[in-house]
């Protein structure tokens, strides 16, 4: 493509009137003119000499607000809604994990111990804020309106699954809820999220992008490339790291030498917050502030939420092979985000023990009933194997489809075709 043609293409693709161009000399600063001091003594800066970054906390483990000025005052109705969503997530996870063990679904990943991260961050966002997830943030979707039916249909890969059975269970996507479809490979969503945030910037949209990932994904090259692009392009994005201490079997002690993930933010020139991930109020306040910075100042923010993964990495994992049961149970008892919020509600006289029993029983029944319905739904039509990649099917796709149709005409009796739509 000739240069003139390339420029014309760019002019048509980008609303140039919204971009502010600066002369080259006004943005280029020679090395010697930067805010850099010089030292005539050789100093080796050691990590051990630096104090650890503290974690922001609003509510202690007993459900007490430490500083009343930090209480967001969300009110009784909102807090009961938050608690119900957290319990729903926990009960749903328990039931679907059991369903996988029974062979009713093929795979599942729980979020035990991280419920406050999901609801705290989700409640601080709006539907205009685009979501890029890893695979352990389904609570964010529940908050946005994703139903039990939506979740279980996807896990069953049936005809009601928006992904048409092409994705692994728990790899959700929803255009309606502004969620980009989840992908298994670690950290690939990070640079993609930066690109989406940059498009928001160019459009002048009053919204941000939030990108979730675990501390293990922060060891991938895409993490570093994504943060550097976000910083240099000044994009409105929140990088949300769930540091749950384990990347499958790799503990945090084996994952990094420095002060977690938050310490990397400063190196890329990114505003950073470390927060108690088991404290709903702390996560909510941190995300709300990060969103304000991202939108009003058009700059990225990194949040590291310190938590602990109570459950196995997935139904393909047995975490007792690399950590003790006493470690798991100790964290479940001491750092339980649901229990912490329950104590807060009880102290306010907004919730009672008998209400809790009724809630759990009701959610269990809803999940079980939905599971019974979803497993009986037909699988997507076999023809869907060849759709949605190209606007117009290519010759090789057409040929493959014809070959499959001919094969099924001859050998169809050897397949359970009644399980599929059409």
Largest sheet: 5 strands, parallel
What is the helix fraction of residues, given as a range? 40-55%
The helix tally amounts to: 15
Helix/strand order, N-terminal first: HHHHEHHHEHEEEHHEHEHHHH
Beta-strand residue percentage: 5-15%
SSE layout and pairings?
Elements: H1 3-13, H2 24-27, H3 76-101, H4 115-122, E1 130-132, H5 138-144, H6 148-156, H7 189-203, E2 209-214, H8 221-233, E3 237-243, E4 246-247, E5 250-251, H9 252-255, H10 262-267, E6 271-276, H11 280-296, E7 301-306, H12 325-334, H13 337-347, H14 353-376, H15 395-411
Parallel strand pairs: 1-2, 2-3, 3-7, 6-7
Antiparallel strand pairs: 4-5
Helix pairs in contact: 3-4, 3-5, 3-13, 3-14, 4-5, 4-11, 6-14, 7-8
Description:
This protein is 43% helix and 8% strand. It has 15 helices and 7 strands. The strands form 2 sheets. Strands 1-2-3-7-6 form a 5-stranded parallel beta sheet, sandwiched between helices. A two-stranded antiparallel sheet has the order 4-5. The two termini are 46 Å apart.
Short description, anyone?
With 422 residues, this protein is α/β, with parallel strands linked by helices. It contains 15 helices and seven strands.
Sum up the structure in keywords.
422 residues, alpha/beta, 5-stranded parallel β-sheet, 7 strands
